[in-house]
Specification:
alpha/beta; TIM Barrel; 10-stranded mixed beta sheet; binds iron/sulfur cluster
Length: about 250
């Protein structure tokens, strides 16, 4: 089994419940959805992955052949032939351990059978996190699932049933209500009870629903006010989201 790999790097999770936590990233190539504001459109073509096709063992080896610290001031270290692993002066002497969590992202990673990669990571004790739009059946065992639904390919109910958090990309103020109305007909019961979950019992493990301003509109005061007002009024599990890694100029 091989995967079309766009890039592999070490950084930290910049979004959601695990924001700020160190992680290895495996960005797979291929996505058929074509969101107009996609910030990773260079991953769409699975037939021409930047790093070629790699086995799970090769992916694990690439994750491990980096050192802790910044690469070129980017706040992350890329490996696998894109950038040589480097260590900034501030982190000299630190011993790089294999990442305790790895985030599989894309592109849309769920178009691939992720089971062999998940098995290889989990066999050595690495937690596997997935970032997916949710529109494709999941193949693999995951420790954390982030679903970021897209209007062009709505998430499957079976995938929402496995999601730990939702990340909604908000491009206009009225889009929050549109997502609420859609999710309310897809997830039952809804709204989801307060964190921590479940109390009372609920078949869905979703603990948070993040509202992210679409990045090109992150300074739009009307959009930001709409998110702030919604979260303030609706309460848990709604969260105001942000991509903090971009403030750190990290991957
Ligand atoms: S689903 Fe994700 S990777 Fe695919 S086009 Fe949309 S934002 Fe980009």
């Amino acid at each position: 089994m091989t995967y079309p790999v766009h890039e592999i790097f070490r950084s930290f999770q910049g979004e959601g419940t695990h924001a700020g936590a160190a992680a290895g990233f495996v960005r797979l190539a291929g996505c058929p959805i074509g969101c107009p504001w996609c910030d990773s459109a260079d991953t769409w073509n699975a037939a021409a992955p930047k790093l070629g096709r790699l086995t799970p063992a090769q992916i694990l080896a690439a994750l491990d052949t980096t050192t802790a610290g910044a690469a070129g001031g980017q706040g992350s270290s890329r490996v696998g032939g894109v950038h040589a692993a480097t260590a900034g002066a501030a982190t000299a002497g630190l011993t790089a351990a294999p990442p305790s969590r790895v985030i599989i992202t894309g592109g849309e990673p769920a178009i691939h059978d992720l089971a062999p990669l998940c098995d290889a990571l989990r066999a050595r004790g690495t937690a596997v996190h997935l970032e997916t739009c949710g529109a494709f059946p999941l193949r693999g065992a995951f420790d954390w699932i982030t679903v970021s639904p897209k209007w062009r390919a709505l998430p499957l109910a079976e995938t929402l049933a496995r999601a730990n958090e939702l990340k909604l990309i908000i491009t206009a103020p009225d889009e929050i209500r549109r997502w609420f109305d859609h999710l309310a007909t897809t997830i039952s019961p809804f709204p989801i009870p307060h964190f921590p979950f479940p109390n009372p019992p609920n078949p869905f493990p979703i603990s948070a629903i993040y509202l992210h301003p679409e990045w090109s509109r992150r300074a739009d005061p009307v959009l930001l006010a709409a998110i702030a007002d919604w979260v303030s009024a609706a309460g848990d599990p709604w969260r105001a989201g942000w991509q903090i890694h971009k403030n750190y100029n990290a991957r």
